[in-house]
User: Which sequence fits this backbone?
């Protein structure tokens, strides 16, 4: 499937559950609703024509206004790849775990929980990860978090 | 006399252990000498590279990202630069593409030579370590000649490469390539049929193809499990579609097959370098990129085949800024360490070392 076929196939299959974004370059980029996440992931993995069996990466983004969680998925069988993301507000930010679908998600989600403070429902292994055991200074990857001796580089 | 009983106990391995390739700690739960549970503890090398990149211009990010995976700095630079170029839609000159491929493949050889040396060192053989580092020295000399650095190069830039190769590079490189296949024969003569090496590696740490794909394992470890998947061929980037090379793959998924894949990959990489030198045209090495580089609003995930598997970079650009809004780096070791507890279960403590060495895990890539 090339890019256009992939977009059309996904849009036909998921209808109004997904929205094609114009921010994506090269590979298509979709936005889905947080409540659809697990169902969507299960569907793209189990569908024979998509078969998105390989999770490349999960990364959270703090845009300064809200959180985004970006999933980069790929198919080894069909050699296709696309990205999708979910967008949510800061208050009570939480997503469902997808590690039942892709076990690789476990650590990505754990990292996201620790560095961004996004709660992961149904995860079962949310323990200190990259930060020291006695860390009590919040979630350092948030945009409003700065190290005590930090100086912002001027825009020049 | 009191009754004898057995009980499980926990031991700590690392973080300062001679064979943990960085600073990684394992909490092992043992039944006698057999491992029933292993828990990796990471974060000792966390340098917040992703956070630092949010406060740097794209050009300033590159030397920081060099430290992301310092055994193959060229790949770390390449994946970030590739993402930035995709964002801005930059087309780079032919000669720069070839120079990049030459450097990436030489760096893959250098990285596999580190793996070859340290793996055998972990298993108690010291000769291969000396052999591997001897040839690695030649590769590092080539890098030093080109960009003045031996480990963190800052060579690949947005739009091309920082400088052209000096005229003595090509003869030196030919000299290296001519002898290298023979040197790999030497490496194989030491280990491939060595009975001690076979006993330590055959049927140890078997990774099934299903488990490998589910855990996001890629690179040589995935190909050793029988999945023929190499991004240089299956999702070609740069100019890899112009070279003829084989993708070695094996079926058993044990430590020994991972060893064979990497040995064969070194040979193939050398072939790619030879072809690239032959085909390389004259010309510019840098596209016209404004000093004030501001990619348009957008987001992109780029991935390349590194010596430890898929290396990826996700960049989100806010539009009118010289700094990225978010850089997320993905390294192959991250997933390989995640699958370690599954692989070591039921093996002996000494096998943890063999399995970790065969997966070629390095910690800076995991902790970032």
Assistant:
């Amino acid at each position: 499937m090339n890019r256009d076929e992939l977009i059309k196939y996904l849009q036909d299959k998921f209808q109004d559950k997904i929205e094609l974004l114009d921010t994506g370059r090269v590979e298509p980029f979709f936005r889905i609703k947080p409540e659809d996440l697990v169902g969507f992931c299960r569907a793209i993995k189990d569908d024979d024509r998509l078969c998105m069996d390989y999770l490349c990466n999960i990364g959270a983004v703090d845009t300064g206004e809200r959180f985004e969680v970006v999933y980069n998925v790929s198919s080894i069988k069909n050699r296709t790849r696309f990205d999708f993301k979910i967008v949510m507000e800061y208050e009570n930010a939480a997503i469902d775990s997808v590690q039942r679908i892709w076990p690789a998600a476990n650590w990505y989600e754990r990292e996201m929980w620790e560095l961004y403070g996004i709660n992961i429902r149904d995860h079962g292994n949310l323990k200190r990860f990259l930060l020291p055991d006695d860390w009590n200074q919040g979630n350092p990857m948030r945009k409003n978090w700065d190290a005590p001796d930090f100086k912002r580089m001027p825009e020049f | 006399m009191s009754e004898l009983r057995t009980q499980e106990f926990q031991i700590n391995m690392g973080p300062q252990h001679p064979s943990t390739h960085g600073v990684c700690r394992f909490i092992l739960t043992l039944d006698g000498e057999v491992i029933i549970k292993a828990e990796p503890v990471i974060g000792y090398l966390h340098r917040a590279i992703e956070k630092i990149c949010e406060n740097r211009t794209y050009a300033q990010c590159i030397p920081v990202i060099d430290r992301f995976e310092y055994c193959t700095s060229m790949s770390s630079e390449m994946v970030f630069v590739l993402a930035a170029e995709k964002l801005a839609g930059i087309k780079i000159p032919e000669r720069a593409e070839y120079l990049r491929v030459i450097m990436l493949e030489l760096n893959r050889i250098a990285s596999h030579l580190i793996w070859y040396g340290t793996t055998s060192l972990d298993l108690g053989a010291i000769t291969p370590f000396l052999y591997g580092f001897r040839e690695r020295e030649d590769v590092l000399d080539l890098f030093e000649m080109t960009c003045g650095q031996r480990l963190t190069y800052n060579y690949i830039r947005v739009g091309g490469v920082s400088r052209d190769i000096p005229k003595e590079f090509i003869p030196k490189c030919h000299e290296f390539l001519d002898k290298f296949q023979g040197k790999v024969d030497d490496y194989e003569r030491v280990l491939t049929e060595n009975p001690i090496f076979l006993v330590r590696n055959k049927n140890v740490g078997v990774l099934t193809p299903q488990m490998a794909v589910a855990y996001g394992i890629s690179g040589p470890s995935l190909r050793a499990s029988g999945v023929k998947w190499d991004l240089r061929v299956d999702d070609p980037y740069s100019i890899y579609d112009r070279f003829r090379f084989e993708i070695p793959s094996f079926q058993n998924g044990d430590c020994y097959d991972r060893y064979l894949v990497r040995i064969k990959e070194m040979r193939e990489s050398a072939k790619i370098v030879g072809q690239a030198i032959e085909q390389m045209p004259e010309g510019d090495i840098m596209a016209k990129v404004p000093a004030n580089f501001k990619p348009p609003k957008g987001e992109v995930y780029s991935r390349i085949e590194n010596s430890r598997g898929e290396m990826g970079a996700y960049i989100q650009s806010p539009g009118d800024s010289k700094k990225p809004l978010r850089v997320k780096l993905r390294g192959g070791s991250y997933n390989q360490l995640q699958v370690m507890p599954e692989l070591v279960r039921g093996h002996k403590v000494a096998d943890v070392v063999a399995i970790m060495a065969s997966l070629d895990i390095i910690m800076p890539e995991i902790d970032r």
